[in-house]
Amino acid sequence: MLRQLSLFAVLVAVHASGEFIVLHGPDSIEFTVNGEIEQSNLKEILSAALGYTAKEKDSERSIAVWDPFSMPRALVAIAIDGIDQLPFIKDNTKATFPLIADEAEETTWQAIRSRVEERSNDNTLVRINLSDGVDALGQSALGELKPVNMEKLKSLSPDVEEDRKFVEEMQLLHAIADNAFSAKKHDSYTNVYWLVVSSLRLVLDYHGNTSAPAQEAYSLLNDAMEHVSKAFMNTYDGRVIITAFTNDARIMRSARSILERHRRDTPQDEDQDEQKNKMEDGEINRMSSTSESITVVSSTERPGVQENSGTSEMSDEVKEHKTNTNTQTIGQPEFSGRAKTYTENYPVIFNIMLWFGVVFVFSLLAICLAIADMDPGRDSIIYRMTSNRMKKDN
């Protein structure tokens, strides 16, 4: 009963504990809201939006591709740690999904990065944690980032450490927007920009969620995200996906620990139930054998022990086999069906072979039909060469 209550508490805690918002997307794709999504499935949805093959069918229900020849060329994802809602950007969104935070944002980033690297090694794949500060981000993949001077603050104070860190992150976010054009490469590869905002939670904890500094922080973050969105839209001529999602690590860690504990305890309870059932069956068999005769009991007592020992040995072998099977399954690498090295010549060669095969098949079919309709008596070369000689012989 306690386990069921804890599982129910976890489900309540992780049920739609975040938001995933699409700020911009090209007309070639459309995000369709069909209920809540898990963050572990976010990599499949974003990969499908970039034109990659998704490994899970659930992602197909959240995105529709209208023009496969005009797929996005870049992805900009803004992860906001420590909060579960984004109420300040509701008006400028294309789609809003309730998000279940069952995975860390860095894990999602690593999955998308490996998916893109499988196709090509010349992509721009950037993850910037804005909390690292100006010194750590001075020379990044986006070039030299210089903090942008912001307007005079009203409620946030530079003397408060939490406020100062958040303002620095917003300055860096504006600097990234200013350097968006210089980060673009003149190629057709997919680029991913992963930006992490982690100081907003500090401001909310220090001042409160409904305080004046919190409202000003929301406004500053909204302005910075709009600046980033417009900058990357102009850089890639609208062929870019710009998203934002929340990631509350506190809820995720507590939910994951309880769920793992529940999964770990469930097999043990099942094994205990099986052992109890076997013991009850053995007691019933012994009682039935005792009721028949005392001599039969004395003569079958040793085989019964051997039988029980054999049963335990068989159960141990089965458990060992199950353990080995699980170990092999976990150790096997995931089959992707794609070569490690991928070049842009692959679709060209594939199309050449495909259409050559189609033309060859139809040509062979036409030749076969022509031969089938041919008259071997008058159209063949043998008839033409032998007809005159046959007339002379006659």
Automatic annotation (TrEMBL):
Q: How does it sit in the membrane?
A: Single-pass type I membrane protein
Q: Where is the signal peptide?
A: 1-16
Q: Does the keyword Endoplasmic reticulum apply?
A: yes
UniProt keyword annotations, A-Z: Cell membrane, Cleavage on pair of basic residues, Endoplasmic reticulum, Membrane, Receptor, Signal, Transmembrane, Transmembrane helix
Species annotation = Cardiocondyla obscurior
Where does the record place Low complexity bias?
A: 288-301
What GO molecular function annotations does the UniProt record carry, in alphabetical order? signaling receptor activity
Name assigned to this protein: Renin receptor
Q: Spell out the Basic and acidic residues composition-biased ranges.
A: 258-267, 274-284
Cite a GO CC annotation: endoplasmic reticulum membrane
The biological processes this protein is annotated with in GO are: positive regulation of Wnt signaling pathway
List the transmembrane segments: 348-372
Q: Where is the Renin receptor-like C-terminal transmembrane spanning segment domain?
A: 318-393
